């Protein structure tokens, strides 16, 4: 029997991929400047360049909230599995 502690490696689950996508999407959208570096279409007189960025402030907030809630749910599920494994041993 080995005295080395058990090492639980992180598992890539679909929910974690969704979390990563939610957190990466705003960066990609803002760093791809050529996609929004124009004046038209305007929205209530505001050039596209500006209202597109302001729209991403709201979208980023929503995506971060979604990622956080998914992360919380994933952590609760992991804790439940650990608790069951602890009882089963």
UniProtKB/TrEMBL annotation:
InterPro entries in alphabetical order: DUF3311 (IPR021741)
Protein name per its UniProtKB record: DUF3311 domain-containing protein
Pfam families xref list: DUF3311
Organism: Streptomyces huasconensis
Keyword vocabulary terms for this entry: Membrane, Transmembrane, Transmembrane helix
TM stretches of this protein: 17-37, 49-68
């Amino acid at each position: 029997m080995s005295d080395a502690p058990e090492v639980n490696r992180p598992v890539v689950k679909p929910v974690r991929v969704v979390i990563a996508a939610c957190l990466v999407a705003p960066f990609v959208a803002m760093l791809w400047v050529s996609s929004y570096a124009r004046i038209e279409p305007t929205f209530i007189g505001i050039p596209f360049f500006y209202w597109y960025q302001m729209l991403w402030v709201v979208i980023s907030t929503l995506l971060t909230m979604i990622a956080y809630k998914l992360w919380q749910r994933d952590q609760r599920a992991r804790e439940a599995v650990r608790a069951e494994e602890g009882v089963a041993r």
